Amino acid sequence: MFFSKLLKWFDEYQPNCHNEQHYKTVMLLNYYDDMLTLHRKSIYRKLLESKDPTIINALFRQDQTLYGNLNEQSEYSLPLSLFLDASEYANVKHNWYLTAFSFINQIYFQDGSGVNRQEVEKNFINRDDLIRKEKFSLQTIREVIQVFLKGEKHGFQDHSKISDMLVFYLCILTFQNLTKEDILELKDEYIQLIPFIYQYSPSSRIPTYSMHDIICGTKVSQDIARIFNRARTHQPKYLHYLIQYYGIEIIEKESLNFYLSWKSKPKEQRNNITLFTFAEYMIESSFIRDHLQELYDYFWDAIDMKNNYVYFLSVWGLYIERYGIVQPKHFNNFIEFLTKNCKIMHKNQNSLNLTLYEFYTTLLASNPEFTISNFKDIVTKYTKKHCNFIIYLNQLLLKPSIFHSIKTNKNSTKLYDYIKKAGSKSKEHFCYLLEFFMAFDKVSTYTNMIPKLIGAINSNKKWLVRDETFFNSILRFYNIIKQKNPKEAKQLFEITIRSFIKTIESDNKSLMVKFDIIYPYLSDIKEIKYLFKQTKELLNDSNQLIEIFKHFIDLGQIGEKFIQENLDSMIDMEFKSTNKNQNLYRILGILDGLSRFINLETQVTKLMNRYFQMVPNLIVYTYTNYNINTMARQMTFKLLTNLLDISNGYERFVESLLCVDYTTDDTNTIPFTKIKLIFEDNLKVFDSVHQLIFNNKNNHIDIPQQDIIRIHNQLVSGIINQWNLVELSIHSINMTLMYFKPLISLDSSLKDNLLKQFKSFDVISKKSILRYIKENDIQILEYLNDFTLTGFTFNHNKIEQNFNNLIIQKLVGYITRDKSTKPSDILSLSLVSKLFFKSVCLTFQHYKIQLNQRLPDKYQISRRKWSFMSLGCYHLNYKDLERFHYQDVEDIFYQLSSLTISRPMIYLVNREMSNLTHLDIEIRDDMTLNCILQMMNHCFKLESVKFSFIYELNSNRISQIDAIFQKLFLNNSSTLDKLYFGYPATYNTELIESIKSIIDHIINHQTSHPTTFKYQIALTLKAQYGRLPNLDRIVSLTLSCTHLILAYFNKFDGQLKPNLFLNLQSIFLQVNAACQLNREVVDFIMSPEIELESLTIFGDHHTLQEMEQFKKPNLKKVNFILSLQPPKQYIDSILSVINQNQSIKSLKIFKVHSVVIPPIYNYSHCYYSYFIYLPYTTDVHQLNLGEFHSINTNHFIKY
């Protein structure tokens, strides 16, 4: 209400008129903190367009910003030109850049989706998912660049993060969404970005290493190393599109200007990362070649400053490989830096930072004289480290400069002996040096290497590196020896392939091992067969299996028959497997992927014949429904419909459903209940595929009519002969009945069997079946409604009458008010006719409508002619008043019949609330308390009031509560019939007496109105910080309470005495890991002195294992509020216990998705901190069961 006045002042003010109204507007803006609401109300735009410096400065003040997901807040963006213009009229120093970025973000991602930046940076060229439906306009991108440049110029607070994102947007996500003409038009603007591209390239986000991180192989430093190496592997070229459209010459020219500008800065102001990014991008430039010595000196200065060594060394390594070391002093400095400072060659320093070792290898290769003269020492140090580090020794030895030096050195034999000694340390050492030995040794010596290689491949040492080089060198070795040593070669090949498949299947995806490595070495059909044998046994990824098949098909190395035989054996193998679910997806995926390339008619038909023997469960159950695995269903559908003989394949599919052995498993006889559930789950899966094939209007599958009749006859005969329909659920019965629809005649035995089963149903079920038959026009089954055959008939003809307006209004009202009705259903109902629309409006006017789905904040509520609120609104939450136009707010407020106030209220009611009958208030601050007191002066028709006091009581607050109740009783004595008063316990004697006085007034009012007034008094008990509570001191409060809320009840050990709570009717318990449901609390609940009717428990199901409290006599309602998804078995155990208590009439189970639980000893919170989430919960499982029945009966409602 107060906010509507603010909006009025904002809306009506005149800019640059420095009068009293202008002063008020500026003052309010400086204190108002909800810019998103101003944006929703279109006030923000008006203020931004004002060209008023004081107003604009207030909009962008330091502690306020319009930042967030604007896609959820407004349907319209603001043009960037508004922000650029606004910055000219005011000295905006703080949130201007952040707010402008929010709208830029909305321009790029209108649906709020966003992109995975790391994934896009890996590959951003020729990607359809980065292309928008509509191109960017030239002006839009020009303004984005202007915002960026202004942000950089002014250096706003935390501007670098925003600039970093804008460079990504402009360089990676923009060019593919512009016309070529616009790209060329933007040339001058983009050229200005080049220095900033170097500044904000991905290298600027690579983690910085400390010296400790580099030296020590700590978990943290190893993780950083992996992140760095991933980033370096996929370093994007942010200049890619600039070079493509504007040419390398102008990019080099502008980059040279950047370099000269960088040089001109004082040393302490230079950003070394930008220098190395420039160097990395421009490595092929002629300017670089001409200034290598100068550039190397700057490189060394950056290394010497101990900043981000790792990135710097990776770039410098590229230069050394390309141009050499240039100056001897740098070589000597580096050797000392890496060996003494970084200590990479120390025995116990096993840093996983690959860049350091790769750079060391490059450095040594650049100076063969030094490397050869120190050869023994270098090899020895590598040998003393973990065997994985021999990989880098192997790389060094294979560098052309080093390999040539070893070959031609006069001490070549001695140098070789050092390497041979290193390789002899272990089989793993030898394997990692295999490439060198193959290059250096004669082929005739290869035979002696085989046992060592086999030992290395079979090694069970931890952390061994098995990468592409590892397998490539072994397979190249195998390819050389397989002619002369076929037996040994075969053994080596088989263990290599097996190890390779296991590596691919392992979780260590960072190795990036791909099948491309082994393809060149598979030329013999026996080799290919062995590969397929291993993939069938070890590889679960169907996509990779498809790729293997396709590769050999394309090369012509295998034929169609070979693939069909392999798939046959896979189906046989997986039919016998115990891992049914995983195998189903695998075989379905393979058949689906390969059926486009070769004829798999036989294999698909074979799978369909065994489908339900291989598929125990494709269903995931939720609280209220079930979901069938969509991927498996669609693949099954595609395989069936792609068959040349779909009738035969589908008959096999039907046979699979009917031929499952539902009686026994491997060890024991399955209980009937489980047998039935297995069949009904299979039937649901079958029906989901059946509907896609036979009842899909988009399908154009040509199945002969006689085949359709034969298939359906086979299906219904099998089900009716195997099952008695009485034993199945109504859903399964209805599915079975629909399978009769295509039939034109029934076999006499089938007809008699169905008739016999129908007669055994109860009357309600018979009516339901006959109604279903009639509604779905299943003509072949209409004989079941023949009294002469069944002794039963049901007249279910549709009755058509003209309803008068009152009846329609009643029906529409019932539907609209039903909690299960969706907002979309209400909309559809209102569009039937004008009368239906008016009926919906009348319902909103006269009843409280509960919409389970919250209306997004960006939508405003109208009171115009075609609004559901056009006739008025019965119920609102006070905070939702802001959804209406401020000119309507006051009228809406004063005509409400039901009002919930759960947010601070600072509006003073000044006239009668003439319709208000229901009021629900949560008091969280003194301002709201004062406003409610004022409000009571204007309420004269209240029927029910819920008053919950959330924060700590004091004498002043109690006095005001007392005044509120006195005014409530005085003004509403003849109408008030329900009062709820909730408050937290206090242990102050004076306050206890004051509260007792309030409660006495409530009790006295009931005494005066014994038949028309009822009250509920809810007492919240929580431990006081720093002292233990004493319940004996508050006996007057405990005896009067009807509802008890227990938070942290473990602090009340020994004090929960039934004689203190003789009027108790309801208990709310908060349970967690530190405060579990214990024996004392259960005994308290079960005490015969307490006549408990309702029990609510909030917590994690792990802490709610005790079930005895649900056996409480006369308990009528049970509520669970669970913070985690409980397993189905837990729900079953609850139902089993509750089913034994005949007094319980209602069970509700809520799951709260997002709950922030405060610390156990934070006594400023009570249970209300959690309960405010309940209006927004989902997955509500409600069982209003009426009288409970035994679990064994068919009518028990089971989760």
Question: How would you describe the overall organization of this protein?
Answer:
This protein is of the alpha/beta class. Among the domains are: 209-366, no CATH class; 897-1017; 1022-1199. Helices cover 53% and strands 6% of the residues. It contains 58 helices and 14 strands. The strands form two sheets. Strands 3-4-5-6-7-8-9-10-11-12-13-14 form a twelve-stranded mixed sheet. Strand 3, helix 51 and strand 4 form a beta-alpha-beta unit. The longest helix has 23 residues, at 672-694. The protein is globular, with a radius of gyration of 39 Å. Mean pLDDT is 82; it is low at 71-76, 209-235 and 1154-1199.
Which features would summarize this protein structure in a list?
single chain, 1199 residues, alpha/beta, globular
Summarize this structure briefly.
The chain is an alpha/beta fold. The protein is 53% helix and 6% strand.
Chart the SSEs and their pairings.
Blueprint (H helix, E strand, L loop, with lengths): L1 H11 L7 H12 L3 H6 L2 H6 L4 H7 L20 H10 L6 H13 L8 H6 L15 H17 L4 H14 L7 H6 L1 H5 L2 H6 L11 H5 L3 H15 L6 H7 L1 H17 L7 H10 L4 H5 L1 H13 L4 H15 L4 H14 L12 H12 L2 H6 L1 H10 L5 H9 L1 H9 L3 H12 L3 H6 L1 H7 L9 H8 L10 H14 L4 H20 L19 H14 L3 H14 L4 H16 L4 H15 L6 H9 L1 H4 L4 E3 L4 E3 L1 H12 L4 H14 L12 H23 L10 H18 L7 H9 L9 H12 L3 H13 L11 H4 L14 H13 L5 H8 L3 H13 L28 E3 L8 H10 L2 E4 L16 E6 L2 H11 L7 E6 L5 H18 L5 E7 L4 H20 L5 E8 L13 H6 L2 E4 L19 E5 L8 H8 L7 E6 L17 E6 L5 H11 L7 E6 L16 H4 L6 E6 L16
Parallel strand pairs: 3-4, 4-5, 5-6, 6-7, 7-8, 8-9, 9-10, 10-11, 11-12, 12-13
Antiparallel strand pairs: 1-2, 13-14
Helix pairs in contact: 1-51, 2-5, 6-9, 7-9, 7-10, 9-10, 16-17, 18-21, 20-21, 21-23, 23-26, 25-28, 31-33, 32-33, 33-34, 35-37, 36-37, 36-38, 37-40, 38-41, 40-42, 41-43, 44-46, 48-50, 52-53, 53-54
